[in-house]
Protein 1
Amino acid sequence: MQSNPAVEAHAAPDWPAIVAIVLGVTAFSVAQGVTYPLVSLVLAARGVSSTMIGVNAVGFALGLAAATLMLGRLTQRFRANHLIIAGLVGCSLCLAAFAVFSSTLVWFVARFLLGFCASLIFMLSEAWLNVACPDRLRGRVSGFYGASICAGFAAGPLAIPLFGTADGFGFALTAVYLALVAFATATLMYSTRTTPEPTSTRDIFRFFRQAPMLIAMVFAFGFADIAAISAMPVYFVRTGHTEAFAAISVTVLALPTAVAQPFIGYALDRLPRHRVAVGTAAVAALSYLAIPFLDAPALILVAFAMLGAATFSLYTCALTMLGERFRGGMLVAGSAAYALIYAIGSGAGSSLTGAIMEIGGPDAGPLSVGAALAVFTAAFLLARRR
């Protein structure tokens, strides 16, 4: 369903809903930022094999997939804001299970449920954000939303050096934090006046047909984002940089990305949104392509920071354009489609980039991702002209 800019021009934002959404999604990203490294470190300290650690991590991905497929049925039976609160409470209970139990099987089930609950929060929050926000503010609110996600992912792993991996204290503290956020979110919802509409699994797949370029944008984001996080640190080590440099590069990737999103959001509200999307894709492509030709570590980190900010900006653009174009149940369907295609893109980004580096050498990694982003940029420009 198309939006009506004339009607929306003077619409008031639903600020209690926007605050609740940002609180919830930040909590989701903190929980995921804690869980990914902390679970692996604890299992490794217990002597669990790398293979079993990998199998355990699959539980989270399976939970994400299950939530996507069940989203239509759930939204038809329950209100979306109630599902978000249930997701926050579920995440808190899963983290508490990590703190209380030591069974690998229990942890697998907990990671499945954590992925399920976190996915509900993520998908419904995106849809609700677009419902609660008028189009004149959509870019700026989406930019702040994206910055909150980045900040949460960056803050989550800090629980490890602060509280260690023993005794489950990091899990327990994060569980308490999520429970408090769930209470705050429930309190704010008494003042909200909007809520996402129900959707269906059929709508999710219909969205793929109706918005192929938005789907392509999210795929490109997932592909390039995970390539930067998982493959580029390996690239740096293989090209003669230290492990400390590779670790610093991840921090350099995350912080400017969070800072840049509100500025991208402002640009989305002031400039033609497809031009902002094309510009961010072009900057990401050029940054990837430039890295193999840079020698100075400072210049490499600058290019890497630009790469991270531009890559995540693709998602901020896609989220803003989703709310600009669609209404009703298609908003929730679009958010679910985004989650699904991001999972596919990130899986392709980590596996293909690693394989390309093995076959063609380290430089083939960033060059191939840069070339893929350049092709996407050209395709997006061609599609707009048509």
Protein 2
Amino acid sequence: MTSPPAPGASGARPTDARRLLVVMDVDSTLITGEVVEMLAAHAGSEADVTEITERAMRGEIDFAASLHARVATLAGLPVGVLDAVRREVELTPGARELVEELTRRGWPVALVSGGFAEIVEPLAASLAIAHTRANRLEVADGALTGRVTGAVVDSEGKAQALRDFARAEGVDLRDTVAIGDGANDLGMLAVAGLSVAFNAKPLVRAHAHVALDGRLDQVLALLDR
């Protein structure tokens, strides 16, 4: 793979006068696990859900259809399970360091997820991240219904989220960075000025400017070129 272009038209090292926007996937990127699988473990459907997740992340099946199929297995789970899963979430090594350094530089960070706002929003708040977009689980009578509300945040939804965040922050698309691991991240990776495949599936690695494995704060070295 060729060396990635640095964000911005000139390719120069970012300066204090220029702001970058970094948009990250959540499941298996910012955090180590897949939240839908963590929920499925409480429903006894983890094996089936994991298989569907893997196929969706490899781009073998439609993401929206896969999400509906996986969430359907969660029907009847008490809403209190969400609290348990929030406690189970683990940040990827280097994730906190990356976010803290970006914040120190005054560069906005956003999370966009095919997972669930009920997990993503508290996680973002704990890291002082202002922008999020994710699916929302439907709840009735204190239990998950097995459905999501509103439009599914799929590949195009993630791409649109990146555009919306850039517009809100006044950042040119050339100065955006997208980080993700699965096929549903391809849309935002294609839009961003710099695309990073992190611990990613082969399909995603082939379409990103650069591929990284291991610690998430390795991204900082790319931004300083």
Protein 3
Amino acid sequence: MTGHLGGLQAKMKEKFNHAIFVHCRAHRLNLVLSRRMDNIKDCKDLFSTLSGLASFFLKSSKRTRALDIHDQKTFPIVAPTRWNYNGRLGQIVFLYRGSLIHFFQDVWDNKGTWDAETVTAAKGYLHWLKQNFDFCRDFPFH
């Protein structure tokens, strides 16, 4: 909705040229938290990977169907400045980590039925889920 070139702000300025655009407090907080997290390498890596994981499924209907058949779970729509999105996404990955590992292992084991991009991403996410998931101990999802 925001954006000084083509969003709501621009459309309002077209009709009401003296209108002043003010972010709501919740949106401001989201922006501040998002920008602060970008300065903490581990947080930036975590949330970038989580967003990439969600995009991996949302970019392909075949992947989405396969995940739905495999785990009966979908990912929230990507909205990186929304903390409720990041929280839900983190919770899904935390709760379904084992199923996701199984899904990505299945993709890796059946490379011939998937495109190269899917296989390569699956290998990366499989490694990430198996090796770099220590944040679960400290992340308040449960």
